[in-house]
User: Fold this.
Amino acid sequence: MSSTATPPDSGAAPSGAELHWRSLERLYASAPINSLFSSRIAITGEGAARIEFDIDESCYHAAGAAHGTIYFKMLDDAAFYAANTLVTDRFLLTTSFNLHFVRPVRKSRVVAEGRWISGRRRVLVAEARLVDSDGEEIGRGTGTFMRSRIPLSTLEGYRA
Assistant:
């Protein structure tokens, strides 16, 4: 399984924000954890990220549905990347995340839609929701993210 970033739009030269967003997409794809999942990220605008995951049996718990760690991973990533669109110099860290399970999911394409809610300086708040291939919400969460001391420019996936 592999993760991919969306290619930059062809045509006009990308803006500074768009370059940052494409760099965040590359950063997502470069994270070793994402080699375990079939997923794709798209930064869709300031404060917005969309991640598509393919759920299959490899993600199941013993009762035959996606394990809660998968919900957390998808929701945290979508909210994190939505928040990090507003921070161009530092990597954010998740400081808390509140997760609500709505329903179990089995084999499906799942979309995690993240959006920034508030904060721009040191702490940012973002939320995300999970929707299955039938358009049903299966989970949602809200996270708090803090600027770290790690410059984005030092991360190989961001610079590539």
In short: The helical segments are 16-30, 68-84, 156-159. Strands lie at 3-5, 39-45, 48-55, 90-101, 108-118, 123-131, 137-151.
